Amino acid sequence: xxxxxxxxxxxxxxxxxxxxxxxxxxxxxxxxxxxxxxxxxxxxxxxxxxxxxxxxxxxxxxxxxxxxxxxxxxxxxxxxxxxxxxxxxxxxxxxxxxxxxxxxxxxxxxxxxxxxxxxxxxxxxxxxxxxxxxxxxxxxxxxxxxxxxxx
Length: 151
Known about the structure:
Layout: H1 2-27, H2 33-69, E1 73-79, E2 92-98, E3 104-111, E4 116-123, H3 134-150
Antiparallel strand pairs: 1-2, 2-3, 3-4
């Protein structure tokens, strides 16, 4: 019985020594102060990470808002406005520049041998308050289709 008790005490001592070694590794020093400093440093790092995360979210929201206003669809159609007379050729064009909401501008040029006329019309929600030619309507329709395919 004494040998069993002595063996049990030796096992407990070995176990206590192992625990003491593991505790020293955890604390990395002679006191709990080192562990407290480590936890404090991790908390500071976490706070810095949270600030960075919030700044990044604001930055990306700003970029997203700016992108919504930027030109995302550019289409051009060339045509001959004077088909029966033979003057002009396919030198005339309509070009539209639109953002994802359908706001922007359509620019048209009518070319003839005598002169060139250039027109610009504002576009709101894929339409204009000004009368538009068939070519201008077509180029806006193409831009709208390309925008919907890109989403």
